[in-house]
Fold this sequence. Notes:
alpha+beta; 5 helices; 59% helix; 12% strand; globular
Amino acid sequence: MPGKIARRLTGHTADLGESERHALQHGLEVRRGQGYSLHITAPPHVHQALLAAAETVGESTSAADRKAYRIYRDRLHNATT
C-alpha cells in the first residue's frame, strides 16, 4: 500500500473495522525513494475494505494522491485475478 494512502487511512481509523485497523498498525514500512510503502499481510477481503475506505483519496485533488490510489487499486486487482 502506498504511504500516501496509509497515512490518510491511519487518520480515519474510526471508519475501519478491527481487522483493517490491526493490518494498518502491524504493517511494515519500507522506504521507496522519497516516500514509503506499507507492506500489509492480510487476506484479500481486508485489502478490499482498505481500498474502499481509501476511495476518498482517489477523488482527492492532489495528482500524487490519485496516482497512489490507482497504484494500490491496480496491485490489488492484479493480485486477486
